[in-house]
């Protein structure tokens, strides 16, 4: 009869009565509020004003001008522009790198620069021709973009290079106007006011089905989600099968007999299942993206191996964190693999355009490492120096840390006799 009275009393509780209990509101309200504030600050803090936070974006300047200097000058215009641009200390938004055309093309193809400004051969001669009576065309400087580095990064570099070229054009115009005076015709005067034409070209082309360079980020997100969700589903499934968690689907509730097993053996089981199931999920990710959606991708065997190792490293990390922190481990994993990782990935907004806090996180947060490796695979011919070597290194380090941390914690808990509790249903 005592049991019957307890059950009967339990069913007497109503929502309206429980809602009047302040303690019931306290913990959920505080936790939800703190999480909402943290998510707002962390997610939006990295993207609110990229132009304000932009520092030292790698952009090349190529001076191919070998012409003779203009009358009364010691250097040709290409050399003058290059020196002016590279020595400008009024802004730190760009880290100008003086390269040859071949070097610039190589660094565009390896993702080391976001764009380039090219001063062509014969530039000084073509500018000098504007002072003649036959002047009809403007000399051209070319801005090269790198869409493989993402649409925003390429756009920022293009804007920086274009602004530098415009300033150079106005400066040259003032020199020419002062040298020729007002005796020229109206067409020549108009040309001399802004003598240089600026053309924009793609420096390192990528395919049409590349999401304007964003495929690397979204594919990375898919791999992290696959590892994260797969690990959590495996964790729940194993705990339910071993009797350490209830199974509740709609109104149906079951509890299986508890299987006596140590924490270490449980983690070993979950990690082994993660390794096996990840092969299936990654294969389906590639089937969906490459096979069905026709995403541009080459080096498919290497892409599969990289995808598998990346998702596995995430899955093992989630299992280790869950084993160490228990029920709250899912929340901790969310912060590690998403909340802190997305804004510090550098895949949508260049790391040169985010606050210093996110650049610090990017040194070890997983999405930065994985997205750089995928950029190399998808856009930069799988070059090791395009980020692929670093990505493999960080995947290996991440996997090793997950194994060491996870098993160190479970072995410690087992050594202390901290067995998993199995509360019985009332």
Description:
This protein has 16 helices and seven strands. The protein has 426 residues and is an alpha/beta fold. The strands form two sheets. A five-stranded mixed beta sheet has the order 2-1-3-4-5. A two-stranded antiparallel sheet has the order 6-7. Strand 1 (57-63), helix 5 and strand 2 form a beta-alpha-beta unit. Helix 10 (215-241) runs antiparallel to helix 11, helix 12 (300-325) runs antiparallel to helix 13 (329-339) and helix 12 runs parallel beside helix 16 (388-415). The chain is elongated, with a radius of gyration of 30 Å. The protein starts with a helix and ends in an 11-residue tail after the last helix.
**Mean of all residue-level pLDDT scores:** 90
* Spatial order of the strands forming the largest sheet: 2-1-3-4-5
Query: Main beta sheet, described?
Result: 5 strands, mixed
End-to-end distance, in Å? 14 Å
- What amount of the residues lies in strands? 5-15%
Query: What is the number of strand segments?
Result: 7
Ranges with pLDDT <50 over ≥5 residues?
A: none
Q: How many whole angstroms does the radius of gyration measure?
A: 30 Å
Structural class: alpha/beta
Number of helices: 16
Share of helix, binned: 55-70%
Global outline: elongated
Order of helices and strands: HHHHEHEHEHEHHEHEEHHHHHH
Oligomer: single chain
